[in-house]
Amino acid sequence: MKHFRIATYNIHKGRGLDGRIRIERIGRVLEKIEADVVALQEVVSHEGRTIQDHQASYLAERFGYFYSIGETRKHRGGVYGNVTLSRWEPEVVRHVDLSVPRREERGALRTDIRVGGHLLHIFNVHLGTAHRERRTQAVRLIDQELLRAIDISGARVVLGDFNEWTHGLVTRTLSAEFHLTDLHNHLPRTRAYPSILPLLHLDHIYFDHQLKIRSAHFHRDRRSLVASDHLPLVADCLIE
Fold first, then answer.
1. What is the enclosing helix (H) or strand (E) of 10?
2. Where are any strands of DSSP class E within 77-208?
3. How confident is the model at residue 3 (pLDDT cuts 50, 70, 90)?
4. DSSP conformational letter for 51
5. DSSP 8-state secondary structure symbol assigned to residue 101
6. Contact at 8 Å (CB) between 69 and 80?
7. Angstrom distance (rounded) from CA 194 to CA 201
8. Which pick of 12, 42, 49, 120 has the fewest CB atoms within 10 Å?
């Protein structure tokens, strides 16, 4: 068996609840978490400016991670989308567009990593805010480009900001089609959005049965409560 820690965190472009963009504050939150794999959403990376402006490389270099970017759109000339950080170099990196017409661009970033000889397929997703939008995205999650891809041979982890606060179609689809399990039963508290006054459960981690969850929690401290409007969701896992 191999133990590892995984987390998902929507960093809101590094903008905290105080209105300030401070990616170094996000870095301090990640330093406390000490995860081996981190799925980030709403990351902005500008080339040729300060090191902090390229949020993906700044966070990766600060903690010795490899990073992969799934671009969903441009943001003021920078790359905007999902980023996966990993202690282990990825073997496969693939971005899939999940955008629905007349809605904000969305995507899923697949990153394959090997943990202690075990292959893991990490799917970092950020889904839409509208019910009908997510219905379309639920179907696309399970097609041949993503969770049913022919080259998938290891355990899958699907995590990110699902924007689904009820037991909706995305939840039912992932559970029924693949027997993927949500962390819901492992969490002492499930509501974590917005961070300062939590009312909703938007961030999820689904995992294949080969993975055993030892514990899970939302990381709450004084810094994480203001660093973003989301809290990081963290899980300690065993793979066998």
1. strand 2-10
2. 78-86, 92-97, 107-115, 118-126, 155-161, 181-182, 203-207
3. very high
4. G
5. T
6. no
7. 9
8. 49
- Residue 232 is classified by DSSP as P
Residue 49 has what DSSP assignment?
A: S
Domain boundaries, the chain: 2-239
Residue 38 CA, distance from chain mean position: 7
- Residues with Cβ within 8 Å of 8's Cβ and at least 6 positions away in sequence, in order, are 38, 39, 40, 41, 124, 159, 160, 161, 203, 204, 205, 232, 233
- How many CB atoms are closer than 10 A to CB 210? 14
pLDDT tens-digit map of 6-55: 999 999 999 999 999 999 999 999 999 999 999 999 999 988 777 788 99
What pLDDT, in 10s, does the model give residues 153-205?
999 999 999 998 777 788 888 877 666 677 777 787 777 787 887 778 889 99
Both tokens of residue 107? Answer: 């995507």
Q: Burial level of 119, CB count in 10 A (0-12/13-18/19+)? A: middle
